[in-house]
């Protein structure tokens, strides 16, 4: 009896993000690891650290080639300084930019226009750029002041998120 071949689901759960390289990822990890987490906290795994630009959601896999082309927007490189931490509701611990660069806001808005042009809905809440460091972290001890994470943003990525354990992220396309 032969094994059943692995079949991909008919849809892909997608998002657009700033995806850090190794140097920035290590700096983010240093921030994450500086916290004194509670037993209930779930620190974000190193390979999952990112800054979401748009959550797209479930899209038929047959549309992926069209999306990969349609999500190419003009982008100017910019510097991002992540140095302000916040504890959001439900114990979500995040690192935010300070200040928020206008080029980041422009990129996020341009991608929103591209998504709507492809017939995809966009988030109605205001964009709050951040990198999630941990979830369920109510009561975690704040770290001592640290130098900001300096990130020279040269592009963004289209990423697939799988919720099946173990949940994974897979970069489908990088844009520069």
Key phrases:
Cyclic Phosphodiesterase, Chain: A, alpha+beta, four-stranded antiparallel β-sheet, 176 residues, globular, five-stranded antiparallel β-sheet, single chain
Overall description:
Helices cover 20% and strands 35% of the residues. With 176 residues, the protein is an alpha+beta fold. A five-stranded antiparallel beta sheet has the order 2-6-5-4-7, with helices on one face. Strands 3-1-8-9 form a four-stranded antiparallel beta sheet, covered by helices on one side. A hairpin with a 5-residue loop joins strand 8 and strand 9. The chain is globular and about 45 Å long. The model has no long low-confidence stretch (mean pLDDT 93).
The overall pLDDT average reads: 93
Number of structural units classed as domains:
1
Q: What portion of residues belong to β-strands?
A: 35-45%
Distance between the termini: 47 Å
Q: What is the CATH level 1 assignment?
A: Alpha Beta
The chain-level structural class is alpha+beta
Strand order of the largest sheet: 2-6-5-4-7
Order of helices and strands: EHEEHEEHEEEE
CATH topology: Cyclic Phosphodiesterase, Chain: A
Rg over CA atoms, rounded to whole Å, is 17 Å
Uncertain residue segments? none
Count up the helices: 3
Level of helix content? 10-25%
Major sheet attributes: 5 strands, antiparallel
- Full CATH superfamily name: Cyclic phosphodiesterase
> In one word, what is the shape?
globular
The CATH architecture category equals Alpha-Beta Complex
- How many E-type strands? 9
